[in-house]
Write a structure and sequence with these properties.
Helix content is 68%, strand content 1%. It is mainly α and 488 residues long. It has a two-stranded antiparallel sheet with strand order 1-2. Strand 1 and strand 2 form a beta hairpin. The radius of gyration is 28 Å and the shape is globular. It starts with 8 loop residues before the first helix and ends with a strand.
């Protein structure tokens, strides 16, 4: 039997409005609404009164969404607003134009393409798909849940009237996320108005797609646009530093240093994420002194900031410093994650610190509850293989919870070649050639193992196998970068 709520709807609405800026308080109100029976359908309530019950659901869904994207995301799962929506429909409440943007953001957070499509159907059914705010959220959700870019474009084209800047930015983001960079560039050029979000969206999309030089050109265009009097935002600076970090040669370093100079000149606060991008940029270009200085300049460090420094040190032969910095990181109360342990295991493998590496690999699972990925197993196999401990390396591969890929076998093959373990090298070579039949490097490595063992006939036969399969050895090349142009 339905228990009557001791609170009037007016009182509950007042409480929700008063505590709306505080998501955790709204969760307490959610419990109050459930226990008081205020969210249960009331057959005595008029149709007009029933329509307004969408308000508490909208408030609660928004609160759950804000908590799910907060650093303490365990407080509320990303799918909580979607579950609230199901309860809302079961209670007979009618969702309105304020309901769907939050729900679509929740679908984006969970990456659920099915949820985005189902919500679109609900919007169409209730005649809300034409609403500008809802349509913009649909475009963004389709872009972020893995739908083809044509789905976002279809919603965009069906919007009533001339699309505003927010809708254009949402479609531009959807095109970039789908990897349709050519269409994104064309659409960007045709946009009647652009803001910092437009430029940053295209810049980051090009950088994610590996077109780092094009990303820098877009950044230069942004500076030459009508934004010279406006300070660059954190998102823009992080995106351009990412492009600089991944652009090989002197051009990437020069551009990254120019961005750093801009930040110093305009006294841009070095936040954790901006500092991480700067540390990563200097680290990937081997400027460890600048890398350390940028790290020290970040006051509010995060785990990602430590990871950028540890990765830079591990990849440039500073293995001992990696271990020292790792202990400092733990002493300051930061919990290492998968990227942290990858840098640590890489340093141990390159320094030959077998027992230290094995200790931290075991602690990674037992103490820190971090699930190892393929790359972590690859590091452990490399660690044991470099030390010539092939039996243990094979045992690690056999105990892996998933089938080893070419990177794991390749690490062991390189160790076999280093120590002259011909028998195991040939066995691994056959596995690699089955996994990657068109990878010339595997054939060349096996051929070299034969030749170094003095088996010239087998080595020549491996060359003939490559020729019969039409596999050509990748030719080594050199290039010089002159004024930003690569000359072979």
């Amino acid at each position: 039997m339905r228990r009557a709520s001791p609170y009037t709807y007016a009182v509950l609405e007042l409480l929700l409005r008063e505590h709306f800026p505080f998501p955790r308080r709204l969760l307490q109100l959610h419990a109050l609404l459930l226990t008081s029976g205020a969210l249960l359908p009331d057959p005595k309530r008029s149709a007009a009164a029933a329509a307004i019950t969408a308000f508490p659901y909208n408030c609660l869904a928004h609160a759950h969404l804000r908590l799910s994207v907060a650093p303490s995301s365990s407080v509320s799962p990303p799918s909580a607003p979607l579950r609230l929506f199901a309860a809302m429909l079961a209670a007979g409440a009618r969702p309105n134009r304020h309901s769907f943007p939050t729900l679509l953001k929740s679908a984006s957070a969970t990456g659920s393409a099915a949820a985005a499509g189902a919500l679109h159907a609900q919007c169409l059914r209730r005649g809300l798909a034409a609403d500008r705010f809802v349509a913009c959220s649909l475009v963004s959700a389709y872009g972020r849940t893995g739908h083809p870019s044509r789905d976002a474009r279809k919603v965009f084209d069906e919007m009533e009237g001339s699309p505003d800047l927010a809708a254009c930015n949402a479609l531009l983001d959807a095109l970039c996320l789908a990897g349709d960079l050519e269409t994104a560039g064309t659409f960007f050029e045709r946009m009647e108005a652009r803001d910092a979000v437009s430029w940053t969206t295209l810049l980051s999309g090009l950088s994610r797609g590996g077109r780092h030089r094009c990303a820098l050109e877009v950044f230069r265009g942004f500076l030459l646009d009508n934004n010279m009097g406006r300070r660059l935002g954190e998102a823009t600076l992080v995106s351009v530093l990412s492009a600089c970090a991944n652009l090989d040669g002197a051009e990437g370093l020069a551009a990254g240093m120019a961005v750093h100079a801009y930040m110093v000149r305009h006294e841009v606060e070095l936040t954790a994420f901006l500092g991480t991008a700067l540390v990563d940029m200097y680290g990937k270009h081997g400027r460890l002194g600048c890398c350390r200085s940028a790290f020290d300049a970040v006051h509010d460090k995060k785990v990602c900031t430590w990871n950028a420094l540890l990765s830079a040190l591990a990849n440039h032969g500073m293995e001992t410093e990696v271990l020292v910095k790792f202990e400092m990181m733990r002493a300051e109360g930061f919990l290492p994650n998968q990227i942290t342990f990858l840098a640590l295991l890489t340093a141990c493998a390159r320094a030959g610190l077998v027992e230290v590496g094995l200790y931290w690999f075991e602690s990674m699972v037992a103490e820190y509850r971090v699930t190892p990925l393929m790359v972590h197993y690859g590091c452990v196999v490399d660690l044991l293989g470099r030390a010539g401990r092939f039996v243990e390396a094979v045992q690690v591969i056999e105990r892996m919870p998933f089938a080893p890929d070419a990177s794991v076998w390749g690490a062991l093959l390189a160790a076999c070649k280093l120590h002259g373990n011909v028998e195991l090298a040939l066995e691994i070579g056959r596995k690699l050639m089955a996994l990657e039949p068109q990878q010339s490097g595997r054939y060349v490595t096996v051929r070299n193992v034969y030749l170094e063992d003095g088996n010239w006939q087998a080595g020549m036969r491996m060359g003939e196998v490559m020729q019969e399969a039409g596999i050509k050895k990748t030719v080594g090349q050199s290039s010089v970068v002159l004024h930003g142009t690569s000359i072979p």
